[in-house]
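Task 17 of the worksheet. Students: predict the tertiary structure of the chain below and write it out as structure tokens. Keep your answer in the requested format; marks are given for formatting as well as content.
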Amino acid sequence: MHPPDGADRPAAPERAASPGRDLDLLEEMGAAILEAATILSTALNGTRPVDDAWQAIRDLEHKGDAVARDVFEMLVRPQPVSLNPESLKALTGYLDDILDAVEAAAARLAIHRVRRAIPQAREMGRVVLESAQELRRALFRGRRNPKDIIKWKDVLETLVVQAGVEERLRAGQIFMSVERHEITVGGRPVGLSAKEFALLHLLLRHQGKVVRRERLLHGVWGEDYYGDTRTLDTHVGWLRRKLEAPGGIRIVAVRGLGYRLDLRE
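Model answer:
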């Protein structure tokens, strides 16, 4: 006898992510980086209006955020992945940072109303585009071997550090030297614990963007942390007391998601 329509039935089990889904997501991120780099290059060459280019790159950056969120959710649940989870997390973070950097460059062109880029800027745009093309070819096209992909984690880490993205970070009056593990506010040193420094590092890297609680917990306390998640809120509170007023920033709690570091208006 079949149950009538609307009768209670056992819920269908949630479908697990198919093997290789993490590689598909990384490929989406690589495609977004290449498209953003292409648009930035056209803006620097004067063949596309800066405001239009910035909006298009912002849309791609939001897409990249969504892809990164999907990857991190796969790691939290957890679901089957092709890569080592730590390597997957690091690689996703570096790809996200590259897309953030392209968006930041476009934003500054728009904010400063640049209409004609200097030759050095146009050359830098060409280098960024060629690097994105090489990344796309070497990392994804026809090469889905996880070992080949993992090799790029170290390459991207080196590129990010040598470009200064990781070495020096700034927001308002706050200046972070990653290499020296130092923080100054208005030129004066401020003492932070190792956890506070790591937390601020993540927020500064993604200034103006929401960093999910899961990413903050994993990035600062590690994949194996299963303690009280309120420790994150406690450390954010300590950072606020030390940095918000003198540093000219705000650390905003976004309900149900995480935290965002903004400049004070």
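Marker's comment: Helices lie at 21-44, 50-76, 85-111, 119-139, 146-162, 194-205, 213-221, 230-247. DSSP finds eight helices and seven strands in the chain.
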